[in-house]
Amino acid sequence: MRLRNWQQKCIKIALAKYKSTVKHFLTLATPGAGKTVMASVLAKRLYDEKLVDIILCFSPSSVVSADFADELSQQFNARFDGSIGALGDSYTYQALNTLNENVWQLFEQYRVFVIFDEIHHCAGSSIEDANSWGSPILNLIKEKAAFTLSLTGTPWRSDSLPIALSNYCNESGQINCDYVYGLKEAISDKVCRVPQIIALDNNKITLTKSEETTTFTNFFELLKAKVISYSELVTNELVIENLLLRATNKLNEIRSINPRAGGLIVASSISHAHVINTIMRSKFNSNAIIVTSSESEPDKIIKQFRQSDSEWLISVGMVSEGTNIPRLQVCCNLTNYRTELYFRQILGRILRMTDSGNQDAFMFMPAEPNLIDFALRVAEDVPGELGKVKIFDIEIENEKSIVLEPLDSPPKVLAEEGDLFNINLDRLINNEKTAETNLKNNSKTPLAKVANNLILNGDFNHRPIKPEGLDELLLFDISDEAHAKLEQLNRLFI
Question: Which pTM does this prediction carry?
Answer without folding.
Answer: 0.78
